[in-house]
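Order emerges. As here.
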Amino acid sequence: MDTYHVHASSSYGDGEDILVHVDELVAQASDRLTQLQESDGHIRFDLEADATIPSEYIFLNHFLDDLEPELEEELAGYIRSLQGDHGGWPLFYEGDFNISASVKAYYALKLVGDDPDAPHMQRAREAILAHGGAETSNVFTRYSLALFSQVPWRAVPVMPVELMLMPRWFPVNVWDFSYWSRTVIAPLLVLAALKPKARNPRQVSVQELFVTAPDKVEQYLHNPTGSRWGDVFLTVDRVLRSVEPLFPKKTRSKAIERAVSFFTERLNGEDGLGAIFPAMANSVMAMDALGYSRDDPNFVTALASVRKLISRNRVGENRFIQPCVSPVWDTALGAHALLESGLDRADERIRKCLDWLEEREVTDVKGDWSVKAPDLEPGGWAFQFKNDHYPDVDDTAVVGMLFHRADPEKHKAVIDRTARWIEGMQSRNGGWGSFDIDNNKDFLNSIPFADHGALLDPPTADVSARCLSFLCQIGHPTDHPTVAKGLAYLKSEQEEDGSWFGRWGTNYIYGTWSVLCALNAAGEDPEQPYIQRAVDWLLATQREDGGWGEDGATYDKSRRGECKESTPSQTAWAVLGLMAAGKADHPAVERGVRYLMTQPREGARWVEPWYTAVGFPRVFYLRYHGYSSYFPIWALARYSTLKRSNHGQVVHGM
């Protein structure tokens, strides 16, 4: 195991003294980061969610009767380690009790063989019952329970597979859903139509988790938004439930074929459907329900993709299942940090990063995004090793900035392709979503199925900021139509307190850092009142220890400002944001730097158990293990550069 490096704040004096120590720390940490680079050039850290993903992996094995006792016991150990003091399982480190995560975790542990009378199981069961029982869990949890015959199928919304046949003009069609929803739903519709039963070889039941017997529960569904649309969709659900048995068999067969065609076309080799766990697992179960043999090439490939999400062995720790992998994101951000740390752009380690990334540019597949932009040529990057149907706008902007930073002339063709694609992906309101254009029919979040509130992929400030950062870094002026619309969008999205919402990172610190970088790249005068409001917000939220922190609970607007501890990654964002706004000499920045210098570090990473990212706000949180490595390196290195420079200005988009 790597050695912890901890420095006491008293070790540092003022002025040049602190910069010497900053440079030493950056050199140490960046050297450790380069040691993590794989031989082919990429950098990859684990991506961690909550107990639900390893629980669902265990569900899949027991659905298929394809058990992996040794791995499942490791996963059970990991799940046990996440149990909170409240008795159940949270969605992020030291988070609140979550009913759905707790039901899945309890069931998974019982499937593996944990004694329901064991103290940890008793505590979990009592907590679940005290919070309303398994009948109050979310829709996705109830689908799992239905597959294991623990609840009747009326416990889940009616989602007819005929949805796959609906044209784009129809008010509810799959092309108006986000990419992650499409890939998860297509095989799930097949499962809902066929209603298979899990093999459940040990015949494990969790009826003890229900306050009311599942067949006696009168109302499983609710209006997820409380809107009139929600009431309308509940009525539609009741009608569909009555008439679905009357649907023509020929039409149903055609719809199943359409669903199967959709997800098999996008199986994506061993990188998996949508390159995300829920879609992959659903595709495996759907093929099993359809009678695919275990040696069918598609089945073999789909199951292999799920197995590849097992985290790597870590000394003294149980493995877990990743929701997906993040090598493009990690490689691009890691390379940015290494360049910031002083690694020459001609260095072989940077060159290998660029070569690896260039090989993964999506140039020959018009993915789902092309439904709304049929004339736009491809030119983006996915988040994962391979996911050609679903390049990620955010990743693409970060990679584009990296190529431009490394050598704008050498990589001109790549940069130009990237710019054209990003410009073409702009939504009508001036912002950018992560994977789609104008994916913002908000009324769809009111369907009973959408109780997770993340059916859509609308434009967000953080992704839009990254796109503007890239376009401005490569020379687009502020009067360029795309840039002008993007700037107007960002200004319209600013919160009353001066911050910006962070859709993909926790939370307002992430969003505010992202936007301040974009405004700097665009050449906006930092003395403008709206930028000063953002600066004032960051200054006001600095904690007594000099760091910044923000809890996952802040995605609930009633809990804005909540924080348990400062974190290295969030402190790095705040420091980078302030420096982008011209505040490199502000005492708060030095205090943030001193915080980073005094925090324990293990190898390339600062110690950070906290989750500082999000998949779906309030529902699904993420811990990028790389964030506590490359972001602190980046912030410290930039601080040293700006303090030693004559102009004190950030010259890159990020």
Notes: The first helix runs from residue 16 to 35. The chain is about 45% helix and 5% strand. Confidence is low (pLDDT under 50) at residues 1-10.
